[in-house]
Structures are given as C-alpha cells and as structure tokens.
Design brief:
By secondary structure, the chain is of the alpha+beta class. It is 45% helix and 17% strand. The strands form 9 sheets. Strands 5, 6, 8, 9, 10, 11 and 12 form a 7-stranded antiparallel beta sheet that branches. Strands 14-15-16-20-21-28 form a 6-stranded mixed beta sheet, with helices on both faces. Strands 3, 18, 19, 22 and 23 form a 5-stranded antiparallel beta sheet that branches.
Length: 812
C-alpha cells in the first residue's frame, strides 16, 4: 500500500509539472494571438478616422490600403475553393480596387460593378458598424443601471468578480487542471492496485475459503427458515475447524479470553471462594454437579504457552424443569475467604441482600460475589451444625498460589517437600521463596542451611507458561546449562539456557521429582531438564502425559483470541516427549507414537532415555489403585453429604479419626441412599450394562429384564463387600471429607503425606545415598559430558555428546 501511494504521488508530481510546462507554452501562443487582435482594433480605429462627414471614405491613400489589407487578412479573405495562386491574385485585385461606399456599390478598375462575391468580402466592415450600434445600446443600458442604486451595487459586485477572475484566470485554469488530473490519476492507480490484488489472490485457498464462509453466513442469516445467531454459527464453524488440528488449538470468545487471561496471571478480583451448584436428580443415580467458581479455571494460555491436556471445562446441564437454585461453597482459599470465616459446605442464602433463589445460574452468583476491589461482600449462609450466619469478606486481588505446600519432612534428615500445582507468571518467585524458607528452617534447627534432600511433587501438574518452567529449572541446573529449546515451521527457534547460579547444588542436595500420568507440558520441561542433566531421580508409576507442544495466543478483534500450536519443545538431550502425533490432524488420524518409532537419547552421565512418550520414571512406584466402590463414592458426592450430616451432630476434636463405629454409620447411610434411589452403586457400570442390553435387543436374544436386574444386584452385593476389603482407603476419604469442612488445604495436604506411598518411597530413596547415585549412574567412571552407550553386541562404548549427536547449542 505504501509503495502504491508513493507511485501515485510521484506520478502526480510528474504529470503536474508536465501540464504546467505545456500550459505555459500554450499561454505564450495565446498572447501572440491577442497581439493580432489588438492590431486589428487599431486598424479599425484608423478607418473610422478616414470617414468623411457625408459617410464616404477617402480612398487611394497608402494608409487606407494598409488598413483594408489588414482587416481583409484577419476577417476571412480566404475562399475555401481557392488555391494559393488565387489567393495571390486576390491580394493583387485588392490593391487595384476603388470603392464607392456611399452609393452602396463597389466598382473595379474598369468601372464595372462587382458581383455578389465582392459584396460578401466587405461583410466584415458591415459587422464592424453593427458592433458600433450594439456598443451604443450597451452604453444606454449602462446608464440605466448606474441610475438605479440596487442594480449599481449588483453590477459592481459582478464587475469585481469578473475582474478578479480575469486577473487570476491563468492560476484558476492551472489549479482546476491540476486537481482534475490528480483525481483521475489517483482513481486510476487505485483501480489498478485493486485489479492487481484480485488477480494475485485468484486461486488463493485462504481467500476462497474466507469468501465462502462469508457467503454461507450471510445466506443462513438472511434466508434460513428460523432465525439464527450468526456469531454462534461462526464460533461453531471455527471450533470445528480448529479441533481437526489438535486438542490445544482453540478459538477463544470474549468470555473465554477473559478467563484465559485470569488463568495466565492466576489473579482475579474476588473473595477467594469456589462455589458449586448441586442438583439432586432423584432416581437418576449420581448427583449432577455443575462447577463454577469465584476463581478462574486452572488452564493457562499465553505466548510460549503449554496447555493443560487434562483440563476439561465443565458444561452446564439444563434441566427440563426449572428448579430453585442452590449454591454451596466447595473451597475457601487460605488468606482470603477462609480467613474471614467461609467454610467448605456452607449453603449460600444471599449475597449483598440479594437472595440466591433469584439468580438464574452459577455464573450470575459468581459475578455478584465479584466486584470493585476494596468493597465488602456480605454473604448470608447456613452452616451444618451451626445454623444461619453472616460472613463479610473484602473483595481484593486474589492470587492463587502455585506452591500449595512447602515443609520439612518429619525427622532430622533436613529433607524438604514442595508441592507445585501449576506454572503461572509468579511460579519462579514462589518456588525460590519456598526453598529459602526451608533453608531458614534448617538454620533455626541449628543446621548449616543446606537441604540434604528435596522432593518436588509435580503429580497432577497440568503445566502452564514455558518461561515459568525455565525460571524454576534455573534454580536447580548449573549455570550455562541448556534447559529447553523450541522450534516450529513458522516459529523463530529459541534456546533457553541458565545464566544464573543455582539455588540448590546437586552436589549437596539430592533431588526427587514425583510425576504421574497427569504431569504435563511445563511440568515435563522441568522434570525433563532434571533427568537429562542427571540432577535428580524421577519417581512415579510409569510415564508423564507426554505433551511436547507449544501454543501461542494471538489477540483478535472484538476482544477474542486464537490459541494455536506453533512449535515443539526439546529437552537438553535433544528429545521431544510428545506422545501423540497430530501431523494428519486430530481425532481418528491422531496416533500414539509406537515403541518402535521412539528414538534413543542419552543423559549427561550416559543413561539411556527415549522420546515420543513423556518422561519415564527412573524409580517406578505403583500408585494405589482405587476400587470401583471408592470411585463411585467419590463421584457421587455422598462423602460430602455424610460429612454435612455428621457436622450437624458432632464437634471436631484434636484427636479426630474415623472409628469403626463411625465407619459402620457411613455404610448404613450409603445403603439407605441406595435403597431410596439417591445413589446408584452400579453407576460406574451403567454404560456397559446399557450397551449390553441394547446389543441383546438388536440381536433378538430372548433375555429377560429380570436377569439384567439380577446382574445389577450381584454387582451391588460385590461392591458392598468392598467396604471391608478397602476399608483403609475409604476411611481416609471419609476423614478428608469431614476435615475439609474445618481445616485449610495446607493442613489437609500435610496430613495426607503420612500415608502417601510414592512420597514415602522418594523419602526413603533420598536417605539412601548409594541407591540414589546408582540410579543416576554417578561414580561409574563416566565423567563430564562423556555419554555411555550399549551397542547391540552388549559392548559398552563411551562417546562424547558431539559423537552422539546431542546438540542443543544450535543457532536457530
């Protein structure tokens, strides 16, 4: 566009100068013509002076002949049928003529009268006389105008205008001509540019698709049988298009974009309360829970974004019949709503005087709880075992911490534990402060301020910002070490390398990182860097999720955004841990990377690691598997319901525990709810049972409904037996449900560590230095960057990183 405008301006200047030059030359010619007209006027004046009193004209003098000759030359002396010779003869005859103007006849030298042609040749002189009469008439009109004051003023204005126009006629002509030329030239250039653009875009699939989308939306909006929402149609079409690529490429509408921005910063204005709508669909099994909250969802999006693959946004299920809205608090954050008196399980009655039943959805209640920072939210609640209460909570900027728990493990081994739940903008700072706090606690104990071991719990961590993962990794990796690199088709390759001294020395502090199948994205960057650089041991049941893709968030018009995959990231050994190949698109075309397609890479000490399947645990510790009964109880929400009933009749004591008597009361409560149809113990098998029934009906097998009912009854009896088989796990779940109504999250997490199998295994490993070094291949004769490889013959060979092709210092 800029080049087109420049071309227009240059062309405009050139043409304008050309026109000015041409006009100036033409003006000179016009001036020459005007000189001839002036000479004619002088000749006429001379002729008038030769008139006699009787009207005759003296002839024969030299000036008369010159005057007539000049007038003749300037008033059509050329006859169209005469050639040059005839013209010369006319001049000769003119010199010999004598006229008798008074008698009205011209005679030639022979005294004969001239014919009609001669009379036509003197018509210019008659015209001159007629013009004189017209001049006299004009003079009379002028006198009349001058005698009238009004007409005189108008005439003066007109005369002034005419004089100015005559004075500036050349400039006016130049301006008009230049302006007209410029307009014509500009329009021409623009038309040419449009024509060129159209011709260049002809056949462009993006342009064609855009035009088709616009046409389809317009046709549907104007001609569909029912009224449609064009915006909804557009979002549906775009979402379907993007979902064909991979599950992380998404269009964010206005509402989603705002929630995404809150998730990135992990900040929002509110009171720090998670609320939940609970609907009891009697006879339909589980309670239907539609979760919303005063806080934002924990998905994270921004430039250099690594998304949560396990994040599934809850959808509001609409009942056929409208019911009175009921809202309960399911989580109160420490430092915010919890500190001001809100507790899990509180039933909200009103917010700032507005009854909850007047709201139509959870979102409306959430928006009511939020508001201007500094104001106070007055919340009326009903608490089980207490009754009606009024809680006042100030609205403030709520920062959801990424470090959920930081503590020294029991004993005098100076081993710390940090649970990291996500990676947002301040994760690096939170992690640094947590480590410094642990070191301070060791100093207070009388130690040297160094941690002997540190457990970093990344289980269930969905990831977040790539840059935050780099910030956390720089607290552990040696200065100058590569942390992660990223590269894509249209993405400028980048390599992240630590430029600071680590806060934790791998020589003094042993690291253990806990992972599971829901450890993904940025959490895998941290665990991958620690594993590839042999800084710590990865502990888990098997592998992490395996998300090695980077998303970028592009702001779009109308406060929307596009989040799309732009690159893959690589750990320090050079491997990409992406477990699913979306090269051919999402859905059926997406395939999991097979074992035969995985490539072998090597850590700094020469340990073998593979790509294409997440981060594999160095020390595999199976996580306890939940029974079908435990899963059903957790999903149904009946544990929280029982905790609510217990709170109405009991008070929490310091030495609280789930006794056998309390456990039997819970079993009876579940049995009563099952008989009443408020809970379906076979809900976990409901899908397979319905599929079985449908298949039998389609196959036309004569199986009675009573037999299927008998099968369901058998399943219930088997599950009831699990109350005894899995009593320890269910008791722990029941205890957490009751304590969740009284204690903050940090105390609940700290309490759960005592029975955590994987945490205890990591703690045991950190206390055993020999086993720890053996897992990391330390003190095995392999030094520096020499990496060991075992070939197919079983012979161990030692090669350098360069020999093995482990190159991350690439100048992308």
């Amino acid at each position: 566009t800029i080049m087109q405008l420049c071309k227009t301006l240059i062309s405009y200047i050139i043409i304008t100068h050309t026109i000015v030059w041409a006009f100036t030359t033409h003006r000179g010619r016009l001036s020459s013509g005007n000189h001839c007209l002036i000479q004619n006027a002088r000749d006429i004046s001379n002729l008038k002076q030769l008139q006699n009193q009787d009207g005759s004209v003296s002839v024969g003098t030299r000036s008369t002949h010159r005057t007539r000759l000049n007038l003749w030359k300037n008033f059509s002396f050329n006859n169209a049928n005469n050639n040059e010779d005839d013209e010369s003869s006319d001049f000769d005859r003119l010199g010999k003529k004598s006229s008798a103007v008074g008698s009205g006849r011209d005679k030639n030298v022979n005294g004969e009268e001239d014919d009609g042609d001669s009379s036509k040749k003197i018509n210019p002189f008659k015209t001159m006389l007629q013009n004189e009469r017209i001049t006299e008439l004009n003079s009379s009109i002028v006198n009349i105008v001058r005698s009238n004051e009004f007409l005189s003023k108008i005439a003066s204005y007109v005369q002034e205008f005419v004089d100015r126009v005559e004075q500036n006629i050349s400039n006016i002509k130049l301006v008009l001509l230049s302006f007209s030329t410029g307009i014509a030239l500009t329009v021409g250039v623009l038309l040419y540019a449009v024509a060129t653009t159209v011709s260049l875009e002809d056949g462009n699939p993006v342009t064609e698709s855009t035009a088709l989308m616009e046409t389809i939306l317009t046709d549907l909006s104007e001609g569909y049988v029912d009224e449609v929402d064009s915006r909804t149609l557009f979002e549906t079409g775009v979402s379907a298009m993007l979902s064909s690529l991979d599950p992380y490429t998404e269009f964010e509408n206005v509402k989603d974009a705002e929630a995404m921005q809150e998730s990135i910063s992990s900040r929002y204005g509110g009171i720090g309360l998670v609320i939940q709508e609970v609907r009891d669909e009697k006879g339909k099994g589980d309670l239907t829970v539609d979760q919303s909250g005063d806080e934002a969802d924990t998905g994270f999006d921004e430039e250099d974004f690594l998304e949560d693959p396990t994040n599934v946004s809850s959808k509001t299920k609409k009942d056929d019949k409208e019911k009175e809205l009921k809202i309960r608090a399911v989580k109160a954050f420490e430092g915010f709503a919890f500190d001001f008196g809100m507790r899990t399980g509180d039933l909200l009655v009103a917010v700032d005087g507005t009854p909850i039943k007047s709201f139509k959805s959870v979102d409306e209640v959430r928006n009511k709880l939020r508001g201007e920072i500094g104001t106070v939210a007055k919340i009326d609640v009903i608490r089980d075992g207490v009754g009606p209460l009024t809680v006042e909570v100030p609205r403030q900027v709520v920062k959801i911490p990424d470090v959920k728990l930081s503590k020294l493990m029991p004993g005098n081994d100076d081993i710390g534990y940090i649970q990291l739940s996500s990676f947002t903008t301040d994760t690096g700072l939170e992690m640094r402060n947590a480590i410094l706090d642990l070191q301070s606690q060791i100093l207070e104990r009388g130690g040297n301020g160094e941690l002997n071991g540190l457990i970093i719990d990344l289980r269930g961590n969905p990831g977040g910002l790539l840059t935050s993962a780099v910030d956390v990794a720089s607290l552990f990796v040696p200065r100058g070490s590569d942390i992660v690199s990223a590269k894509g088709r249209g993405f400028p390759g980048v390599l992240y390398r630590s430029r600071v001294e680590p806060l934790i020395s791998s020589q003094k502090t042993k690291l253990a990182v806990l992972i599971n199948g829901n450890t993904a994205s940025a959490a895998e960057i941290l665990s991958g860097a620690i594993q590839d650089l042999d800084l710590g041991v990865i502990v888990g049941s098997d592998r992490s999720y395996g998300k090695g893709l980077v998303q970028n968030v592009q702001e779009l018009p109308y406060s929307t955004a596009l989040k799309y995959t732009v690159a893959k990231y690589y750990t320090p050994s050079g491997r990409c841990i992406q477990s699913i190949d979306y090269k051919d698109g999402n859905g059926k075309k997406a395939v999991k990377v097979s074992e035969k397609d995985k490539n072998v890479f090597y850590t700094r000490s020469g340990r073998e690691v593979k790509d294409g399947g997440g981060i594999e645990a160095d020390l595999k510790v199976p996580a306890p598997s939940a029974s079908a009964l435990e899963v059903t109880l957790l999903r149904s929400g009946i544990l929280k319901d029982f905790a609510s009933e217990w709170s109405k009749k009991n008070q929490l004591t310091d030495n609280f525990s789930v006794t056998d008597q309390l456990y039997r009361e819970f079993q009876a409560y579940v049995n009563d709810k099952h008989k009443a149809g408020d809970i379906n113990l076979t809900a976990i098998y409901a899908g397979p049972l319905k599929q079985l029934q449908r298949s039998l009906e389609e196959s036309k097998y004569q199986i009675s409904k009573s037999e299927l009912k008998s099968l369901e009854s058998d399943i219930v009896r088997e599950m009831i037996k699990d109350f005894d088989k899995y009593a320890k796990d269910i008791k722990e779940d029941l205890s957490n449900a009751i304590l969740d109504r009284y204690l903050p999250d940090s105390l609940l997490l700290s309490r759960s560590l005592k029975t955590d199998v994987q945490v205890n295994a990591a703690l045991k490993l950190l206390k055993n230095t020999n086993e720890f070094n053996q897992l990391l291949a330390r003190n095995t004769g392999v030094e520096g960057d020499n990496l060991a490889r075992i070939d197919s013959s079983g012979v161990t060979t030692s090669k350098t990183a360069e020999d093995l092709g482990v190159r991350l210092n690439l100048n992308w």
